[in-house]
Amino acid sequence: MLFNVIKGLHILAVIAWMAGLLYMPRLFTYHTRAVVGSDMDETFKTMEQKLLGIIMNPALFVVVILGGTLIYFDTTAILATPWMVVKLLGVAFLVFWHMFLARSRRRFAAGERVHSERFWRMTNELPFIAAIIIVLSVTTKWGV
Ligand code: HEM
């Protein structure tokens, strides 16, 4: 019972984290067009800071803590299973992407525009592709 409650909370935290990972590059796409120092620039900076600080960072923390708790409670040597290895590789990519977005946010806040609008549009779907691989790995538990 407790395991299932934690699993539910884990999935809710994943939803919040994914929302941020998908929304932040969308904000960057429009932010790239805003003139540095303009009202629009300041509005995007505030939105990005709040999205990262209030939603994405806490959600990442909760996902990892509850995911680790699920592994701890699982008695089937879950870490050694092929689906779990693939899942954790997907999670490693999402964490890397989270860090990359956080660094990009700092650079936007400093008035830099390091990547083009096209770059943000083209990379927007990467976290979703990783999520498809992760979720199907867990729901099918293939290879066992
Ligand atoms: C460090 C990060 C993570 C760890 C350690 C972790 C670990 C786990 C574990 C041990 C379970 C229980 C598996 C079982 O049913 O026996 C689980 C369930 C689940 N995880 Fe994660 N997880 C992490 C991140 C994620 C992410 C990023 C996603 C999605 C993008 C995700 C999606 C899910 C889903 C959908 C389930 C429920 C699967 C089911 O009941 O069939 N997890 N996780």
How much strand? under 5%
Principal-axis shape equals elongated
Secondary-structure class: mainly alpha
Give the helix tally. 5
H/E series: HHHHH
Alpha-carbon Rg, integer: 17 Å
Low-confidence stretches: none
Measured between the Cα atoms of the first and last residue, the distance is 24 Å
User: What is the strand tally?
Assistant: 0
Query: Helicity range of the residues?
Result: over 70%
Total domain units: 1
Named once each, the bound ligands are:
protoporphyrin IX containing FE
Largest sheet composition: none
| Arithmetic mean of pLDDT | 95
Strand-helix topology:
Blueprint: H1 2-31, H2 39-73, H3 82-109, H4 117-123, H5 126-140
Protoporphyrin IX containing FE binds next to helix 1, helix 2, helix 3 and helix 5.
Please give a handful of descriptors for the protein shown:
about 140 residues, mainly alpha, about 0% strand, elongated, binds protoporphyrin IX containing FE
Overview of the molecule:
The protein is mostly helical and 144 residues long. It has one domain. The protein has 5 helices and no strands. The radius of gyration is 17 Å and the shape is elongated. Protoporphyrin IX containing FE (HEM) binds next to α1, α2, α3 and α5. The site of protoporphyrin IX containing FE has 19 residues, from α1, α2, α3 and α5.
Briefly summarize what is shown.
With 144 residues, the protein is mainly alpha-helical. The protein has helices at residues 2-31, 39-73, 82-109, 117-123, 126-140. The chain is 80% helix and 0% strand.
